[in-house]
Specification:
Strand order of the largest sheet: 1-2-3-4-5-6
Radius of gyration: 12 Å
Distance between the termini: 6 Å
Number of strands: 6
Helix content: under 10%
Number of helices: 0
Structural class: mainly beta
Strand content: over 45%
Shape: globular
Order of helices and strands: EEEEEE
Length: about 80
């Protein structure tokens, strides 16, 4: 099962030299993450463009989360939590 956060919650993300997330801080979810997969969503969504870099990450080795970086705002968001 998964929980979609609407609206997505702003978070702070630290990345490595290649831009992959390595640490997430979005109260109450805080800790190191292991990136599992990445994909880009770049489309015109009903005349409101969307440009995002999505990541599935494993938080503290046990909680699967889906985060994204808004490429226009250069801001990170938590969008989904899997249990």
């Amino acid at each position: 099962m998964s929980y979609l956060l609407y609206p997505p919650r702003p978070i702070a993300v630290r990345t490595d030299a290649e831009g992959a997330p390595v640490h997430l801080h979005g109260d109450p979810l805080v800790g190191p993450v292991r990136p599992l997969r990445c994909w880009i969503a770049d489309l015109d969504w009903w005349e409101r463009p969307v440009a995002r870099e999505y990541w599935q990450v494993l938080l503290r080795g046990r909680l699967l989360c889906e985060i994204y970086r808004d490429l226009e705002l250069n801001a990170w968001f938590l969008e989904r939590i899997y249990d």
